Amino acid sequence: MSINVTKAYLPPLEQYVGYLEGIWERGWLTNNGPLVQQLEADLSAELDGSQVQFMSNGTIALQVAIKALEMTGEIITTPFSYVATTTAILWEGCEPVFVDIEEQTFCIDATKIEAAITPRTTGILATHVYGYPCDVLAIEEIAKRHNLKVIYDGAHAFGVRVHGRSLLSYGDISTCSFHATKLFHTTEGGAIIMNDKELARKVWLYKSFGHVGDEYFTLGINGKNSEFHAAMGLCNLPRVPGFIAARHKLVVLYRQELAGLPLQFPESQEASLEYNYAYFPVVFETEKQMHQVKDALAAQDINTRRYFFPSLNKLPYHTGADCPVSEDISRRVLSLPFYQELHLRDIQRIGIIIRSNLD
Question: Which residues act catalytically here (predicted)?
Answer without folding.
Answer: 182
